[in-house]
């Protein structure tokens, strides 16, 4: 099985090039569906059952098993969408410099598509029954919160013993055992317009009210406890000589655990409700959309299995935590032992110039995934 993956490295790179050169922005349904069609064909070529979950707005999702009626215990999750606009692949197509592959989405996470496919091909080629123990979800909207795929992931999670999420691996053989939860909120403040030179006293400044709220929001940060609140976008007013009748702020929140999520939501609601500038009104929308992936005793045991498998292959697997969210949260919150970042290793995801995947790790992490599946299936 290891030899099969090593011998097919160039074939893997060729397919990676095809995927990277196919635009698949989250809002580009046609592009995401092209990636889905490429994957569907490849998995069907090795005899696996592929169900297409058709969507009207976002790209379609894929659900893949060895056959329609098997009952796998391992869930593998990957996403087909990227953050890059349509036309990016033509602007800067797939390229290789040394041992690194570059291009839009190469690391986040088209190299992982190749990894999952060739892990399955290797299991099939070697006659391993472990291929029957795998349930794969390729979703189309992870970069925008997995709104249409969350229910599919939760349904696929039923009766699973393990979840392996193939977001990109971290340098120095890192895999992810802990991720922050992500929340997005918006405050809309209403005031009253007035001419700022003629009769400013009859106006009510929404910008002034929002300024008080922004300062209080930023004071909620507790970096030592892993809690971050960032007012990343503000907008307001109608003209420089008008008392602002409206203003808005968009807020990003990251939390380490469920208690932080509950407490910070309460604090943001309290800030929205408090009125500093008399006569203003504030409307709050949004929520903690993606729960945290908390490190548990069960996920630690799964990590030890991945680590032991890696040791047998000559890899020194380490665990890391990260502030970014992923679909791993949806299986972890259900109590399923979950490991993330088990995909090929790279850096600088979402970068317009520097994002890369280490092509040696494309082979190594494919072997690691296949061998881990075998060990979890014993």
From TrEMBL:
Q: Which UniProt keywords apply?
A: Hydrolase, Metal-binding, Zinc
Alphabetical list of Gene3D superfamilies matching this protein: 3.30.70.360, Zn peptidases
InterPro entries from the UniProt entry: ArgE/DapE_CS (IPR001261), Bact_exopeptidase_dim_dom (IPR036264), Pept_M20_glutamate_carboxypep (IPR017150), Peptidase_M20 (IPR002933), Peptidase_M20_dimer (IPR011650), Peptidase_M20A (IPR050072)
* Swiss-Prot/TrEMBL cofactor(s): Zn(2+)
Q: Name one GO molecular function term.
A: metal ion binding
Domain Peptidase M20 dimerisation, residue spans = 177-277
**Pfam families recorded:** M20_dimer, Peptidase_M20
Q: Which PROSITE patterns match?
A: ARGE_DAPE_CPG2_1
Q: Where is the active site?
A: 81, 142
Q: What is this protein called?
A: M20/M25/M40 family metallo-hydrolase
């Amino acid at each position: 099985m290891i030899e099969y993956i090593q011998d097919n490295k160039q074939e893997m790179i060729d397919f990676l090039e095809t995927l990277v050169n196919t635009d698949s922005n989250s809002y580009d349904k046609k592009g995401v569906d092209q990636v889905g069609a490429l994957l569907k064909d490849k998995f069907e070529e090795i005899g696996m059952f592929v169900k297409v979950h058709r969507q009207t707005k976002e790209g379609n999702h894929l659900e893949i098993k060895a056959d329609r009626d098997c009952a796998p215990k391992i869930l593998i999750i990957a996403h087909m969408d990227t953050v890059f606009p349509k036309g990016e692949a033509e602007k800067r197509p797939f390229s290789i410099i040394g041992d690194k592959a570059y291009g839009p989405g190469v690391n986040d996470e088209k190299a992982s598509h190749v990894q999952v496919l060739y892990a399955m091909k290797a299991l099939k080629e070697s006659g391993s029954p472990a291929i029957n123990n795998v349930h794969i979800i390729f979703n189309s909207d992870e970069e925008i919160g997995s709104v249409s795929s969350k229910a599919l992931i939760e349904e696929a999670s039923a009766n699973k013993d393990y979840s392996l999420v193939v977001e990109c691996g971290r340098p120095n053989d890192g895999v992810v055992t802990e991720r922050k939860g992500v929340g997005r909120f918006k405050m809309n403040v209403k005031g009253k317009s007035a001419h700022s030179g003629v009769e400013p006293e009859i106006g009510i400044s929404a910008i002034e009210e929002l300024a008080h709220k922004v300062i209080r929001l930023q004071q909620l940060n507790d970096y030592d406890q892993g809690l971050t609140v960032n007012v990343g976008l503000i907008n307001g007013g109608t003209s420089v000589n008008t008392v602002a009748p409206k203003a808005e702020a968009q807020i990003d929140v990251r939390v380490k655990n469920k208690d932080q999520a509950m407490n910070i939501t309460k604090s943001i609601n309290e800030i929205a409700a408090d009125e500093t500038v008399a006569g203003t009104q504030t409307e709050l929308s949004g929520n903690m959309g993606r729960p945290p992936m908390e490190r548990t005793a069960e996920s630690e045991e799964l990590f030890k299995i991945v680590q032991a498998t890696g040791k047998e292959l000559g890899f020194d697997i380490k665990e890391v935590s990260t502030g970014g969210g992923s679909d791993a949260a949806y299986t972890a919150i259900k109590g399923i032992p979950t490991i993330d970042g088990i995909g090929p290793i790279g850096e600088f995801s979402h970068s317009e110039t520097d994002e890369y995947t280490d092509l040696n790790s494309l082979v190594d992490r494919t072997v690691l995934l296949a061998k881990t599946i075998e060990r979890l299936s014993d």
